[in-house]
Design goal:
The complex is a heterodimer of chains A (110) and B (109).
Chain A: E1 4-7, E2 10-13, E3 19-25, E4 31-37, E5 43-51, E6 54-57, E7 64-66, E8 76-78, E9 87-94, E10 99-101, E11 105-109
Parallel strand pairs in A: 2-11
Antiparallel strand pairs in A: 1-3, 3-8, 4-5, 4-9, 5-6, 7-8, 9-10, 9-11
Chain B: E1 4-6, E2 11-14, E3 19-25, E4 30-38, E5 45-50, E6 55-57, E7 60-65, E8 70-75, E9 84-92, E10 97-99, E11 103-108
Parallel strand pairs in B: 2-11
Antiparallel strand pairs in B: 1-3, 3-8, 4-5, 4-9, 6-7, 7-8, 9-10, 9-11
Classes of the chains: A mainly beta (110), B mainly beta (109).
Chain lengths: 110, 109
């Protein structure tokens, strides 16, 4: 089946630790995105990538890092510099028009 | 000012009602526009794209006004199953895809 897969679905992190969220797509899309969603809020853009080996900061990039070494993969690292990382993280891919979303990762700092 | 702003809501309407959501965008270079539906604790899913001439899909009608930089979504004959959060999304020609904060709709019997 074609689609976009995020893992894990739930993730717990201790304060001060870095953690990496996985996002893989087999839709052959060039563009990929990471969003953060807090309860009752909309989606805020963290990073996006239009092509392999290139990415741009979104509106809330501080405390996060990404890489785009392969077209299919766009992992997001939540670093210890992110002061309030507990949130729902959504990855999306696009062929230039509509976005397809993964099922999200719920990150909780304990 | 946010790049994309939506009606704050929430909207609570009876079954059968007609409800309209609006969304404004600030970047005049925006090229494509969409409405997504998001159910509680789920990922957003595309409801419909928004075309310059306006478009309709069953009970749903989307409109785009480039001059005033807003898009709208009209839902006619609301169903209980329409209860969800509706997000507008705007894509620029640089590939950035920005979402509004969403408007929550609750349709009551």
């Amino acid at each position: 089946d074609g689609g976009i897969t995020q893992s894990p679905k739930y993730l717990f992190r201790k304060e001060g630790q870095n953690v990496t969220l996985s996002c893989e797509q087999n839709l052959n899309h060039d563009a990929m995105y990471w969003y953060r969603q807090d309860p009752g809020q909309g989606l805020r853009l963290i990073y996006y990538s239009q092509i392999v080996n290139d990415f741009q900061k979104g509106d809330i990039a501080e405390g996060y890092s990404v890489s785009r070494e392969k077209k299919e993969s766009f992992p997001l690292t939540v670093t210890s510099a992110q002061k309030n990382p507990t949130a729902f993280y959504l990855c999306a891919s696009s062929s230039g028009m509509r976005a397809f979303f993964g099922q999200g990762t719920r990150l909780t700092v304990v | 000012r946010k790049e994309v702003e939506q009606d704050p809501g929430p909207f609570n309407v009876p079954e059968g009602a007609t409800v309209a959501f609006n969304c404004t965008y600030s970047n005049s270079a925006s090229q494509s526009f969409f409405w997504y539906r998001q159910d509680c604790r789920k990922e957003p899913k595309l409801l419909m794209s928004v075309y310059s001439s306006g478009n309709e899909d069953g009970r749903f009608t989307a409109q785009l006004n480039r001059a005033s930089q807003y898009i709208s979504l009209l839902i006619r004959d609301s169903k209980l199953s329409d209860s969800a959060t509706y997000l507008c999304a705007v894509n620029t020609n640089a590939g950035k895809s920005t979402f509004g904060d969403g408007t929550t709709l609750t349709v009551k019997p």
